[in-house]
Amino acid sequence: MLEGIVTKAIRRSNRTLLALSVVGILAVLALVALNTRYFYNFILGPAPVTADEVTGYTGAGQPQRYWVTVTGEEVYDTGIQYVNQESGKETVENSYLALVQNDRLLLVKVPGEAVEQTTFTGWLAEMSDDEYREIVQSIETDQPELTGVFLPFMLETGNFRLNGILGIVIGLGVLAACVVGLVKGIRRSGDPNEHPIARRLARLGPVDFVISRIEGEMTSNHLTLGKAHLTANWLVFAPGSDLQAARFEDIAWIYKHVTTYRTYGIPVSKRFVAKVFDRFGGQMTIEAGNKESKADELVRAIYERAPWALAGFTPDLEKAWKKDRTAFLDAVEQRRKAAANPDAALNR
């Protein structure tokens, strides 16, 4: 037996949820795997290293323990700082020092002003092109005897664990959301009635019966406007992996909604949708794209099939729908009775 539009939407939604959940879990695990060296140091903390060990490194990526505590014989202020100027105020973001390691110099980047100390804790990092050019090459130009003395990496001090803490919090949040999504996808695949689409349809009656009625009418010739289907008794909107439906007899209020997008106060585009409300409190927002004529055609087609519904938007109607729904629906019911027996309405 061929699957109908409701069953297909539920299955497609479940597949999408499961796929996104699995991809999310794999992405988090992959990020952890790609950063095992960082988390290894994050967990173990800074390792004390000697000058001999530091000068023996060929690059910042060589040692497994690259979050280190280094002590030098002397420290020199290079006099070079990165200064941020904002609103006429200068703030020193970083200062650069040269720490003596045997017969070599280790460039040390410290936040804020330079400090007078010979022990630093930080992580070994590669110099940026700007740092190498503006600091190391500048010093070597002014003092040729220091050419080749600087180690090919630097020590960057600061909060080593901050990015890790943020990453762990975000990663755990994503992982938890993906696990929940995976569990939901599995449960909904085993019991389609647990799916939000089925739950929305449940307000209209027994789910299996409602789905059979919708899918039965969808096989007959009917009007289709975009992703909206208008069958003999049903309005069905099926965008992507979602599906919403309402019986025409239950529709209480319809109107066209326009959203205007502006750039620097100048309108650049508009988005049109049809808003449909039923007597159970359900709401459908049916996309009509950027053409107003399509939205007008859709609203008109729905109203032709539910002429008792209140049409158009006013603040008073919105207030009544939100604050006094019973009176709103009573007015719709009176219009329904009048539409069903026009002669009685004329004789009043």
UniProtKB/TrEMBL annotation:
InterPro entries: DUF6709. The keyword Membrane applies. Pfam families: DUF6709. Keywords: Membrane, Transmembrane, Transmembrane helix. It comes from the Bacteria. The keyword Transmembrane applies. The chain crosses the membrane at residues 17-40, 160-183. This is Uncharacterized protein.
